[in-house]
């Protein structure tokens, strides 16, 4: 069938919650450390989730801009610099999507390079999970647990989530996380949204955002949010993914980032790893992103004023466990490759993108692909010429 009618059953809801391992750590850090409004952080993400469910009719995910967020958090940048970066990202990807440039560029990337990008993202997910339990972010409440306890808890969660994926495992884990947050939260609950702030922008603010935040993020968003997300959608859902195109993904994330920048919120994107997480835990239609969007909107409006304190108590083993499973399942997409050269190229691109830089990995991978293709073509022509003599 060409499209899928949204479903709102238990499996869809379980799948909808499966990608919180990426969203929560970055969102909490931006709220607590960088001073962003909790409502401004979740509102654009919730709206993009709703739009994704309606437009794509598949479990297309919404995630924070990971490289962007990591730099902003590590350098303690303010809401204005983050907003300027979101506005620039929005403008760039609306231009790429509306002009058709991104759809044309996507055609030059062969499957081994796309799989390499996905391997890189899977490795990044596993690294983030490792860091959550070995060096817990300061934004999270210290439960007095040792690193060994956190690692053991994450491994247990990951094993359970892996064995029971698609059977409501994420629902049970999120319910446990809610109980953990309720236990850790102390103080009066303030109901209602947090304040939305208009950013203070200047040429200097945009210059800082462009060089420090946007440039490191552009290759990752181009490769993972647009190319790899479209590819994995077609891999998982076949003809039902006809709406999921790189250019259209660029447009939806671009518009969402303009909104995020306007309210000094969290820059967001789509992500191939998130789609793997949603699907692996039960999501099959646009019902999952619609439900996730409604959850985020309700929380942002009803609990925004207390959200920073509540989310800081989210149990780290559950976050790390869900993230580990999503990363491993994403790396398993390599099984689609069968030729040794393709597998080698995918691993080379993935490892280079993970350890060094995704832009370098993309360019290097394309050069290797074109060179090997040219050599193969030259050998074929030489063989044919020799056969004619």
Distance between the termini: 52 Å
Which class of secondary structure composition applies to the elements? Answer: mainly alpha
Using DSSP, what is the number of strands?
A: 2
Largest sheet: 2 strands, antiparallel
Domain module tally: 1
The largest beta-sheet arranges its strands as: 1-2
- DSSP helix fraction: over 70%
Average pLDDT across residues?
88
Kindly provide the radius of gyration, computed on alpha-carbon positions and rounded to a whole number of angstroms: 21 Å
Strand content: under 5%
Total count of helical runs of at least 4 residues:
17
Global geometry? globular
Low-pLDDT segments? none
- Write the element-wise H/E pattern from the N-terminal end onward: HHHEHHHHHHHHEHHHHHH
Task: Explain what you see.
With 389 residues, this protein is mainly alpha-helical. The chain has one domain. The protein is built from 17 helices and two strands. It has a two-stranded antiparallel ribbon. The chain is globular, with a radius of gyration of 21 Å.
List keywords for this structure.
17 helices; 389 residues; mainly alpha; single chain; 2 strands
């Amino acid at each position: 069938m060409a499209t899928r009618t949204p479903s709102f059953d238990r499996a869809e809801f379980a799948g909808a919650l499966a990608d919180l391992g990426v969203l929560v750590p970055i969102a909490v850090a931006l709220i607590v450390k960088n001073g962003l409004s909790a409502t401004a952080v979740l509102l654009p993400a919730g709206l993009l989730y709703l739009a994704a469910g309606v437009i794509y009719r598949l479990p297309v995910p919404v995630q924070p801009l990971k490289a962007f967020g990591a730099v902003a958090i590590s350098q303690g940048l303010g809401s204005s610099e983050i907003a300027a970066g979101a506005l620039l990202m929005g403008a760039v990807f609306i231009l790429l999507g509306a002009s058709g440039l991104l759809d044309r560029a996507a055609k030059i990337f062969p499957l081994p390079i796309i799989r390499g990008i996905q391997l890189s993202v899977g490795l990044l997910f596993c690294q983030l999970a490792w860091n959550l339990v070995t060096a817990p972010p300061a934004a999270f409440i210290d439960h007095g647990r040792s690193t060994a306890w956190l690692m053991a808890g994450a491994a247990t969660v990951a094993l359970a989530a892996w064995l029971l994926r698609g059977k409501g495992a994420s629902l049970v884990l999120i319910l446990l996380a809610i109980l953990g947050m309720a236990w850790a939260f102390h103080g009066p609950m303030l109901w209602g949204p947090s304040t939305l702030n208009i950013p203070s922008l200047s040429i200097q603010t945009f210059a800082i955002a462009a060089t420090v935040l946007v440039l490191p993020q552009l290759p990752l968003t181009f490769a993972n949010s647009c190319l790899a997300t479209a590819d994995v959608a077609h891999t998982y859902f076949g003809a039902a993914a006809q709406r999921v195109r790189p250019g259209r993904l660029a447009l939806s994330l671009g518009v969402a980032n303009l909104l995020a920048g306007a309210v000094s919120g969290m820059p967001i994107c789509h992500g191939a790893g998130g789609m793997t997480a949603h699907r692996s835990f039960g999501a099959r239609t646009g019902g999952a992103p619609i439900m996730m969007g409604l959850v985020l909107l309700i929380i942002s409006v009803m609990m925004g004023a207390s959200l920073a304190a509540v989310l800081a108590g989210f149990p780290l083993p559950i976050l790390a466990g869900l993230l580990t499973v999503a990363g491993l399942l994403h790396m398993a997409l390599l099984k689609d490759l069968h030729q040794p050269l393709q597998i080698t190229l995918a691993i080379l691109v993935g490892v280079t993108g993970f350890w060094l830089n995704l832009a370098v990995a993309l360019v290097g991978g394309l050069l290797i692909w074109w060179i090997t293709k040219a050599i193969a073509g030259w050998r074929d022509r030489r063989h044919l010429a020799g056969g004619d003599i």
